Amino acid sequence: MSAAFEAERRLRILDVGLGRGVQALRLARAGHGVTGLQSDPDLRELFEKDLAEEPEEIRGRVRLVAGGGEDTGVHFLPGTFDVVMCHGGLLQSRDPGTTLAGLARVLAAGGLLSLVIRNDAALAMHPGRAGDWDAALAALDFPDRTGSALRLETLTRSLAGIGTPLRQWYGVGVFGRDDCPADEEKAERMLAVEERAGRADPYRSVAAMLHLCGVRGGDGG
């Protein structure tokens, strides 16, 4: 079943570990209902201040819940959301496998699970290209604290096992720039290159981050 949604459809979205809520606000402004799950009280406070400056119509589309990715079962019923985003939160999870299953559980059939993870398999690439050899050596020696739980191959198997098979994956930050050129034309070219490289082998495999998209099976898994 596809996660292609009709353009006019208003989606129910869960943003796990929403940070400052930039994506959450963008989605709410586009007309979607957004629930933000955030365990850090300071970040919740900052987001609430930003949200308070939005028009009432947009504020009404946003709900903020205290908790982390491992708490979805406490707060939400199965099949509650059309889209679940967890962009970085799995790395902080004590049990990534259980957290991942919980994220899939609250997805409706045909819903999209969007994950962004650090690409531990290529940690040395960007400091190495920048000539920072100490950082590159440290990255090569970096202990994998989560074992292989957050590697692409393992996550592919895990997603299939919880009824949300991987549909596509992309590289994010292929060329390692953290800043965007001030010149608008150069910025557009940079983004065009990043987008194309992030979809193609072998470039996406050495990106700083990986974006994984899984789709919940029609039987609910």
Automatic annotation (TrEMBL):
* Pfam families per the UniProt record, alphabetical: Methyltransf_11 (PF08241)
Family matches, as SUPFAM superfamilies: S-adenosyl-L-methionine-dependent methyltransferases (SSF53335)
Which keywords describe this protein according to UniProt?
A: Methyltransferase, Transferase
The residue ranges of the Methyltransferase type domain are: 14-114
Entry-linked Gene3D superfamilies: Vaccinia Virus protein VP39
- Recorded superkingdom: Bacteria
Q: Name one GO biological process term.
A: methylation
Query: What is the designated name of this protein?
Result: Methyltransferase
